[in-house]
Amino acid sequence: MTRESRAAWWFLAPSLTVIAVFFVLPVMGGLALSLTDFDIYALSDPASARLTWFDNYARLLADPVFWKALRNTLYFALLGGPLSVAASLAAALLLSSRAVWLKGLFRTVFFAPVVTTLVAVAVVWRSLYHPRFGLANQVLGWFGLGGIDWLGDPAWAMPAIIIMAIWKNFGYNMVIFMAGLGAIPESLYEAARIDGAGVWRQFRSITLPMLRPTTLFVSLITMIGYLQLFAEPYVMTRGGPLNATLSVALLMYEQGFRWWNMGFAAAVAFVLFALILAGTLLQLRLQKDRS
Amino acid sequence: MILLGGCDSGGGRGEVVRFWGLGREGEVVRELVTDFERSHPGITVVVQQIPWSAAHEQLLTAFVGGSTPDVAQVGNTWIPELAALGAVAPLDAHVAASPVVHQSDHFEGIWDTNVVDGVLCGIPWYVDTRVVFYRSDLLAAIGVTAFPRTWSAWLQAMRRLAAGGNARYAILLPTDDWTPPVILGLGRGASLLRDGDRYGHFQEPAFAEAFSFYLRMFREGLAPALANTQLANMYQQMAEGQFAMHITGPWNLGEFRRRFPPQLAHAWATAPIPAPDGAPWPGASLAGGASLVVFARSRHVGAAWRLVEYLSEPRTQLRFFELTGDLPAHRGAWDDPRLRGDPRVAAFWEQLQHARPTPKVPEWEQIATRVWRAAESAIRGQASPEQALASLDRDVDRILAKRRFLLERRKARP
Asked: How many other C-beta atoms can be found within 10 angstroms of the C-beta atom of residue A16?
């Protein structure tokens, strides 16, 4: 080891220690826990927990509720994720264009939901979604459409959660996209205009390619966040109706802290981890193939 | 009133008793505690209020973290769990020596919910059970003035209600509610679990019969296949005549009074659950309510017990009823005209004599969830009644596997 690299390790040591103590160790503990049937009885008598190896995982894969939760989570991530990124990009493009006034004001307004606590947001959205008095159904009424029982109908509960989640989160990605847009040299657009490229052509041939690193970052972060869907259904629907909004993370919470099936909950956590890891690798691979 | 000390904690000066109260009860208990502190100089009670929705998690987390309070209000269905953890102190000796708390003052079924494996783990604080709330005007319109007392008469009345056009549906039984099938099963004498609560026993004829009675109400269109989450406003829908009956608990006495339109203020009543034909009336119902428990880790057990005694006195119980509307656990408190004189409360008094606890195993809440899932699959026609009950028993057997293992181990190592 050279002197420099030894020094580098010393500088890294504090953060490596923190990562080891607060991340690696708990994760190993969780992995061990997922191989046992640690439950409510084991809280008072740890000796009653038995090593069951992959029993939790086998039960998990045989449990229709888990598959329902997985489908819901993928539904949310695969529909809500791209829509959220598209909404962020659209808002960023609008706010970066020269035609818009009061940019600072709009940027703040769009960003405000991101920093608002979810519980407050949920209270407001629950009243928006109220089947009889809610604004959502009133708006549908103007177009002569019948009302929807947004949070009570198993078919509509997840779309309702998706709409709310997009509204709540798109401001964050929007700010990142705006930074990305700001970094594209104006000269590229000038050259394109001289060559006679229209707005759409400029967008496709300059903006999108130049934004690729930003888009990769944004879609990765969004996917990771959306696969961990928890707070929205926890506050709005508690996973109902008929488990229509039960997500994998919510299932993990229910198993762990409602029923105290800690072993089983740990297994759910690792499946979720594997899912997110697979999603991340897939996305990285797709991006690499294109570039 | 002054209780002379001398308990295990020495009744010392300056003792602090930490009390966890839940929801609205946790709020009003502060008021009661002031009087207690006045009559018990030297004991200070610190009340912490915890919302109902978080309470169960908080108690278990506190147990794991070693920060349980001295006394807490708990739902009486949580007691088997707390007992299995060894979190709560046995109270038999305290009751035996107590001038205030006597088992004979309590409703038998409710008291029973506090006894786990022969050990008394809590003292009932207030009680609840479920009865039928019904639109008396709609029943009178079809000639029914006294609420039916048998299942067959009940079914007849429901059929006429639905056919006569008075009510769209005869009864509301939310499909995500485990209580109606369990109440009917208990009424039929079903044990729900068998062999010392080691296995599910939902396929036994008594439960199967009750289950088919329950399903019939849906099949004949007497009850809508609606979940609680699909109900916009139960009170309004009942006032509109969407349904004429609903099985629910005492908290709805106040809600019905508040939420029914004034012109219908006298158009609703309550009645105990009808009994299966040939069985004594009324049918059984759930033994619910909240109890007071003293935690095993408490270092102020003596002072904590005195607080429990104070809250169990009929006088305090009545005060508590005034403040919350919760029905008193002490039967002596029921002599009060506000309870005795109200016919809507009388149904609860009658029903409480026939309240039966659900199986006292920590897994019950999980099992209860499976009960409504199985019932729902039969209601929606995804499974035949026999299939639904067979798969329910399979699920329950799996949930109870750990319990069987522990019981076997205990037998092997006495």
From this structure: 12
CA distance A128 to B207: 43
CA dist., res. B339 & res. B127, Å (int): 13
Using a CB-CB cut-off of 8 Å, the residues of chain A touching B366 are: 259
Residues A10 and B185: their CA atoms lie apart, in Å, by: 69
Q: Tell me the C-alpha distance between A264 and A137, whole Å.
A: 40
The residue to which tokens 């607060």 are assigned = A22
Instruction: Test A151 with B229 for CB contact under 8 angstroms.
Output: yes
> pLDDT tens string for chain B (414 positions)?
344 444 444 444 589 999 999 999 999 999 999 999 999 999 999 999 999 888 888 898 899 889 999 999 999 999 999 999 999 999 999 999 999 999 999 999 999 999 999 999 999 999 999 999 999 999 999 999 999 999 999 999 999 998 876 778 999 999 989 999 999 999 999 999 999 999 999 999 999 999 999 999 999 999 998 887 667 678 999 999 999 999 999 999 999 999 999 999 999 999 999 999 999 999 999 999 999 999 999 999 999 999 999 999 999 999 999 999 899 999 999 999 989 899 999 999 999 999 999 999 999 988 998 999 899 999 988 899 999 999 999 999 999 999 999 999 888 876
Give chain B positions within 8 Å (CB) of A40: 60, 81, 84-85, 362
Inter-chain residue contact A44 with B230, CB threshold 8 Å:
no
Asked if B141 is an interface residue toward chain A (Cβ–Cβ < 8 A), one would say: no
Whether this model's pTM surpasses 0.95: no
The pair phi, psi for residue B12, each rounded to 5°, is: -65, 165
In this complex, the residue of A40, A152, A257 whose CB is nearest that of residue B81 is A40
Measure the CA–CA gap between A19 and A16, rounded to whole angstroms.
5
Q: What amino acid occupies position A14?
A: P
Q: Which residues of A touch B405 (CB under 8 A)?
A: 50
Q: Do B230 and A37 touch (CB under 8 A)?
A: no
What are the start-end ranges of the H helices in B14-105? 23-39, 52-65, 79-85, 92-96
* Interface contact flag, B84 A153, Cβ < 8 Å: no
Say whether B406 and A41 touch across the interface (CB within 8 A): yes
* DSSP β-ladder status, B268-271 and B327-328: unpaired
Contact B84 A132 (CB under 8 A): no
B232:A40 CB<8 A: no
> In this complex, which of B86, B402, B409 lies closest to A44 when CB atoms are compared?
B86
Please list, in sequence order, all residues whose beta carbon lies within 8 angstroms of the beta carbon of residue B411, skipping any fewer than 6 positions away: none
Q: Tell me the nearest-neighbour CA distance from B57 into chain A, angstroms.
A: 6
Please report where in the chains the tokens 């939901």 appear, as a residue: A113
- Both tokens of residue A149? 């029982």
Residue B315 in contact with partner chain A when CB distance is under 8 A: no
- Give CA–CA dist B266/A196, Å, rounded: 81
Q: How confident is the model at residue A259 (pLDDT cuts 50, 70, 90)?
A: confident
**How far apart, in whole angstroms, are the C-alpha atoms of residue B55 and residue B48?**
11
ipTM: 0.71
CA-based R_g, chain B, Å: 22
Closest CA to B64 of A45, A2, A155: A45
Residue of A nearest to B407 (CA): A48
Can you list the domains of chain B with their CATH numbers? Answer: 3-128+287-340 (3.40.190.10), 131-285 (3.40.190.10)
- Distance between CA B250 and CA B270 in Å, rounded? 10
**Contact check, Cβ <8 Å, B57/A152:** no
